[in-house]
Amino acid sequence: MITIVTFVLFTALVAVLTWLITRGKSTSTEDGFFLAGRSLTGLVIAGSLLLTNLSTEQLVGLNGGAFKEGLSVMAWEVIAGMSLVVMALFFLPRYLKSGISTIPQFLEERYDAKVRALTTAVFIIAYMLILLPFVLYSGARALSEMLNLSDLMNLSESATIWAVVAFIAIVGSAYAVFGGLRAVAVSDTFNGLGLLIGGVLITYFSLKYAAGDGNSLTSVFAEINQQNPDAFVSLGKEGESVHWPTLFTGVLLLNFFYWCSNQQIIQRTFGAKNLAEGQKGVLLAAFFKILAPFILVIPGIVALHVAQQNADFNAGLLKPDGSYDDSKVYGALVRLVLPAHLTGFFAAVVVGSILSTFNSVLNSSATLFSLGVYKKVINPTATTQEVVKSGRLCSAIVAVFAAIGAPLIFMGREGIFAYFQSLNGVYFIPLLAIILVGFFNRTSNGTAAFISAAVGLVIMLWGTFWDNGLTGRVFGSGFHFMGAVFVFLVVLQIALGMKMKRSEPYVQKDAGIVDLTPWKPAKLAGGIMIGIVLILYLALAR
Prior knowledge:
Blueprint: H1 2-22, H2 30-35, H3 42-53, H4 56-69, H5 75-98, H6 103-110, H7 113-147, H8 149-153, H9 157-211, H10 218-227, H11 250-260, H12 263-270, H13 275-291, H14 293-296, H15 298-309, H16 311-317, H17 329-337, H18 340-378, H19 384-410, H20 416-440, H21 446-466, H22 470-475, H23 478-497, H24 522-540
C-alpha cells in the first residue's frame, strides 16, 4: 500500500506545481502554445532536453542492453554529449537566427514548400508509429515489473501492458493538449530532478544488494570484472549491437540527427529567451548525458551479476525458450533492490519520464501539423485560435494511434532498443543528409533535396524491412549500412544540385526575434566535454 501512496503523492505533486507555475501564462498564441513564448531559460531547457530523452526507452532499453552486452551500450549516451556540443555551437545559432518554430520550416526557407511538406509528414508519421509506441511500451513494461501490476490488477501480462499504455496516453495527452510547451518544459524540470535522484538510488541499492552484508560497494565491480572481463569495456565486440567501428558510422549519425535536427528534442531550444540561455541549457544537458551511463548502464551490468547469484531473480527474466527478456531487467531489478517506501516514488518518477517524452512529442507533432499543414495548406487564413485548436486535435489523434500501436509493434520483440534504433534510421538518415547539405551547399534547390530525401526513405525502408539480410552480409552491420546510405544521399544531392540550382545562392536572414549574443564560455565548455568523452573511451578501451 505504501508503494501506491508514494506513487500517487509524487505524481500529484508534479502536476500541482506545474499548474501553479504555468497558470495565467498564455497558451492561446502560437508562440505561447508551441514555444512557451520564447521565454525558456538555460536550466529549464536542460531539464526538458534530458527528460524528453531520458525516458523508459533508455531506462529499460539501455539497461537491458547492458545486461546482455555490458558497458559498450553507453555509446548512445556518451556520443550524445558530443552531438549536443555541436548543437550548441553550430546549429542553435543558425536556428535562432531564422526565428523558426520547426525544422521543416527551416527546410522551406532553405529549399521550398514541397520539402517542408515531405519532412513534416515524415516527422509526424514516425513519431506516431515509432517513437511514441516504443516509449509507451517500454514504460508499460517497466511499471508492470516494478509494481507487480499483473497481480495487483489480476490481469494477464498483455492486458496489463494495454491498460498501462492507455493510462499514460490519457495523462500525457492532457499535458500536451491543454498546457502546451511551457507545461511540458516545467513538468520536465521537476521530473528531471526526480529521475536523477531515483536513478542514482537504483545504482546505489543495486550495488548494495550485489555486495551483500559487510562488503564495500566497490567490491562488486571487482567481482563482476573477474566473472565477466568484458563487462566494463567501452568498445563493443563484433556481434554486439554497438560494435566499435559503428561509432563512426550509424551510431554517430543517429546521435547527430537526434540531438541537432530532431523536432521532438530541439523544439525546447527554439523557445530559448536568447542564444546565451539556449547554449547554457544545451551544454548543461551535454554534461549530464556524459554522466548518464552511471544510471542507465551500470544497473544493467549489476543485474546480470545478481541473476547469476539469485535463482529466483534469474528465473523471472527468462522466456519459455530459455533466453532472457531484456525488457524486464530494469523493472525487476528496481522491485528487487529498492525499499517499498521508495518504489512508489521511483515508479512516479518513471511515469514522469514517460509523460515527459510522450507529451513533448505530442507538442512537437502539433507544432509540425498546425504550422506546416493546417496553416500552410488547409486553412491559410486561420486565426491564431484556430491554429492552436488544430494542434490540440492533432495531439489527440497521434496519441490514440500511438497507444494502439505500442503493444502491436514491440510486444515480443528481442533487443527492443537496437530494433528501435534501426527504425529511427529509416527517417533520421535521409533527413540528416538534406539538412547538412542545406547548411554547407548554398545552391542546391528544393527539387534536388526532395528527390534525395525520397530516395533515401525508400532505400532505408527496404534495408530495414525487406532486404532479407542482404545489408548485413554486405556491410556487416545495419549501422554501417546507414553510414553508406548517408554518404550516397549527400553525393546524390550535390550531383543533382549541379543541374537543379536555386535562382540565387541561399543567404540566411536574421529574423531579429531573439538576442544572438553567444554565451562567452560556450566554446571552452564544449571543448572540455569532448575531451572528457575521448578520455573516457580511451581509459576503458581494451
